[in-house]
Amino acid sequence: GDFRLKDESVTSTIGFKPFDFSKAGLYGDVELVAKAKAKKRPLFTPPPVPQPREIHDNFEGTLVHTVAAGAATNGEEGNARIRVTTEKVRAGKHALKFSDAPELSKAYNPHLVYAPHIKRGVAHARFSVYLEPGAVLYHEWRDSASPYNVGPSLWLNADGKLTANGKEVTTLKPGQWMDFKIICPLGETDTHKYDLELIEESGTTYNVPGIPFGSEKFNRLDWFGFVSNATTDTTFYLDDLHLDVAPPTATGTPVLESVTKIWDEGAHNAFTGLIRWNDQWYCTFREAQGHVKGDGAIRIITSEDGKKWKSCGFLTEEGIDLRDPKLCVTPDNRLMVNMGGSVYEGKDLVGRQPRVSFTGDGATWTTPARVMDEGDWLWRVTWHKGVAYGVSYRAPKANEPAEKPWEIELVKSTDALNYESITLFDIPGRPNETTLRFQPDGECIALVRREAENKHAWIGSSYPPYTEWSWKDSGWQIGGPEFMILPDGSFMAGGRRYPGGAQFGIGPMTRDAYEPKLLFESGGDCSYSAMVWHDNRLWVSFYSSHEDKTSIYLAKVRFE
Length: 560
Prior knowledge:
By secondary structure, this protein is mainly beta. Strands 1, 3, 4, 6, 11, 12, 13 and 15 form an 8-stranded antiparallel β-sheet that branches. Strands 2-5-14-7-8-9-10 form a 7-stranded antiparallel β-sheet, with no helix packed on it. The longest helix is centred in the N-terminal third of the chain and has 9 residues, at about 30-40.
């Protein structure tokens, strides 16, 4: 790592003076230094990565008066205890009793914590609670960040009031068993919400869908806790505890809900990007006289509801065909568009270099700046943990031998302007356009278009530092490859499908294969989509020329 202090570091205010840390270590007597350097130390072996686990405990297999198995029991002092009991049970013969007491060192003691370490999928939690008068309980989901981010958070106060992440649900009477059910997406999700169901002993049911997380950054479950937060001698009981996770498989069958033409004002409108930024929709595409004709300009349009759109940006460069724009959000919350900058003589490509442009307000855009080198095409940029990743490809120009190998290179940047190489992909068949997506655990998935041999796109996966890759043939030729990771952890991909004529389609993708199950009304010059998960729907932008004029479309897809 880079341990140099920044110029604005607060350490200067306490008298600390930076030094050359490369010279840190033992110094002085030559023989002593040599002896220290000769010392062989065992290589550091990092601890194993915690594995995800589900929870199923009715406490029947745990002895009475002992702590719960598989969980950490914390904050027991004085008469405050968490122990298995037979006093009150929801089912079977055992339950878990939380006994609180006054004058504890911390109000949140005692508390019980499980460590599920679940990174993706849809989590289903079920448990039953019995509160004695005056008991205070809160149940919370957290990640392992510092400071931690909160997902679901339920509070049952001494007056019986139940709140879910600050939202009042109802007031409950003590002295009854209450059954809770929480359904919460984990991993990459656009909703940042969960659903709550509560059933009283009488059968009265409360359903509260779409409760916002405590933090939009919450996306994994590392801390699953039950806390007694009273300051008096009180008791509550916990029983029949379950935490299941739907496996990261396909969400269901994609069903087309709607398709709308959102732009056709250019002579030829093509190659889309789509994103939600600051609660607004943004879509970008190229306007020109044809697929390869004239100097292309980049149009950016915006909408509050996905129905009414207006232009908010128009990027041009004299003598340059700007094309294939893609949208992303930088770590400092600027909207960024990356694009190709090509020079043609007729339809012959004679030069190209990527460009990037930024906006902080969605209306004022920086002049497209050249990045990387002449001949590169950085097709899409994906940010992960403050780093911009992309794949640049280099194909022969019109004045170069056609048999010259096509190169494809994984690169990264911290500012989206200056890139460094990570590795060259060893992929045959003229690889080119590539989309990257990242899992919460750092795994990178790549979908790569190929233009030779069987022309099937390849699917790759790798973990940091992303120098070693595993590749599979997807089974399909894909033009303009795009995919995203859905809230349940499954992959949905899309692109131009060729058998029987060009047509745009989407379908489930795994690390081994892809199958376009939903074909859109489209044809001819088409595809180059972008996907966003929003309001429990997959929103898809694409272009097509099936209605004579090449236009931009926006579709909504649900899953059944």
